[in-house]
Design brief:
The complex is a heterodimer. By secondary structure, chain A is an alpha+beta fold. Chain A has 8 helices and 30 strands. Chain A has a 6-stranded mixed beta sheet, sandwiched between helices. In chain A, strands 13-12-11-14-20 form a 5-stranded antiparallel beta sheet. Chain A has a 5-stranded antiparallel beta sheet with strand order 15-19-16-17-18, with no helix packed on it. In chain A, helix 2 crosses helix 3, helix 2 runs parallel beside helix 4 and helix 3 crosses helix 4. Chain B has a single domain, classed as MetI-like (MetI-like fold, Orthogonal Bundle). Helices cover 76% and strands 0% of the residues of chain B. By secondary structure, chain B is mainly alpha-helical. The chains are: A alpha+beta, B mainly alpha.
Chain lengths: 463, 258
Amino acid sequence: MTQNDVIIRLQNVSKAFGGKQVLDNISLDIKKGEFVTLLGPSGCGKTTTLRLISGFTTPDSGTVYMDGKDISGIPPYKRPLNTVFQRYALFPHLDVYDNIAFGLKLAKVPEKEIEQRVRKVLKMVSMTDYEDRDVESLSGGQQQRVAIARALVNQPKVLLLDEPLSALDHKMRQDMQIELKEMHQKLGITFIYVTHDQEEALTLSDTIVVMNEGKIQQIGTPADIYNEPVNSFVADFIGESNILNGTMIEDRKVNFIGHDFPCVDEGFGTNNPVDVVIRPEDIYIMSHTENAQFTGKVTSCIFKGVHYEMLVDTDSGYELMIQDYNAFEPGSEVGMIIKPVDIQVMRKERLCNTLEGVMTDDSHVEFLDGEFECGAKAGLEGGDPVTVEIAFDAVELLDHQEEGQIAGEVHSILYKGDHYHLIILTESGGYLYVDTQDIWDKGDLVGITIKPSDIKLSKRNDN
Amino acid sequence: MTIKRSSWSIPYLIFLLIFVVLPLVLIAIYAFQDGEGGFTFENIARFFTDQDSLSTFALSLEVAIENTAICLLLGYPAAYILARKDLNRSAVTVILFILPMWINALMRTLATAELFNVMGVTLGKGTLLFGMAYDYLPFMIYPIYNTLNKMDKSYSEAAEDLGATPGQVFRKVTLPLSMPGITSGIMMVFMPTVSTFAISEFLTNNKIKLFGTIIQENINSSMWNYGAALALIMLVIIGITTLFNDEDEAGKAEGGLI
């Protein structure tokens, strides 16, 4: 890729609001004419990224480039790009024509030309004859079209769209997706689109940027992101998937759900723990068990319009989701096969909780703003900085916050076939990763305790 | 026996009849009666032929317009600053601006008059306008602040996104969108200033007489019929100014006070 192809470049951009890191050292190149989608759950930093590009937010550190020029300090009204706002933000005191002509009038475009351009853009969004209408009398879909027209009429180099379809109903949203895609192809300008809807992102984009917790998780084409997610977050967020703990026995051989499977992945070492992703439609299910790689019993079967979605308990006690065009009755014994190419192996982001702490005396350690008993450890005394390691399944969660040594909130939940992997946001703002059999809901407030014997300490050298 | 829901409003209807409709009817009757109780247009005609009454009326309008203008010029920037989250982070400042409304206007006016006496300022039109602006400023600030505060920030962002400088954003978007608050504020300041008499009495030592003052003087000296006629005329004039506001009825409710 040559330098000239890049229209927007974010370089090592960070941003914090009120002490909370919203963007953490993000770098991103957006090519001319691309349809790029920033995708992630709410609070992942996607809207902040868009606002950095439009200029409503300035980065704490790092640089925003447009056409190779640093635009970090340039106010929004001087940037040659336009935004379609989430709730349209059409001016209620102006009619459709004046809303669309707003930018052109400011730019002192001759009246004749304004009229031509407004009519042309109204035709493009199929809103001819609506010039004199009061914007508040329009339906959501029509307001959406006017908002797009108001941005496009200025012929921006880049069009920014901030969840533009989120206020529309399902049918309308699908129609607008097709129209947006057509507009993008016809105009050839760069679209940067923000959404939390993975389906929308897969439908529209040339490139998807998956974000979470202020970091870019993966950049790729929709097919790349779907077929080869780089970590369990991306796999879980995009589409349905079975995410399982596995062990890479050797190159091209992985063990999970108690069986060895041939796969196509190499370079993960030997006997290393990994995450394995299997899409529900990639598991072949059959009524006979000979020649099957593993067997199981169907526990539920739901018709989903085109396919059936089944839950199967495997012979080794894991639960898998399987999609197939044929229905298998609950209770029936089935055999299953997974093709090597359909097994997606990912490096684990972490194997246990690793935290920084300080010894308060020779048998207590403080971390995540809580003090924990850890038993006397040789060579450690009060004031020593330490690295604390706690296994995922050693963290106990309690129903009441006050019962725990520290308190937290369930931040996200991932089902791993035979247990749940939770991320707990503690009151100190730090994260704890927990494996549990118990069922929790997102947002549950929990107390947290850890047995002294499960806290592993090693002395940390600060220098 | 069940009471129909619609009958809940009966006590309020009775209240309205006794304390609003009846007095209005009485004013109208008195205004068109002579001393002996006979029907006459004399009282109305007297106002339009009496040079003193007419000039007092003109002065009242002038003072009311001036006061409204002063309140708007002082109040809009104050409301704007209060509503901007980046300029004003505390709700306390808003309360401080509204706080004088908690104290009786008469007491504030008396205190202001005393203050001028102590400072040795000659009472006159200047002190009158000062007192009025002091009394009525919160009534201008609050509805404008309310409108600005509720205004979706994305409007000004959209304008800036389309190339408007901060000055243009204000002129083309913020100001037009705050018009409901402005009209509401103007009504709340203009109407009571036209009919005020206490402020002019205390802050000018009765040197300047306003329309409210002569109504009060007529009623006090038992000239009920002429007083009623003057009150009726004022009512009609205020009624006319409300008509200007009619098209903004929806906005007025939104920007309304208290």
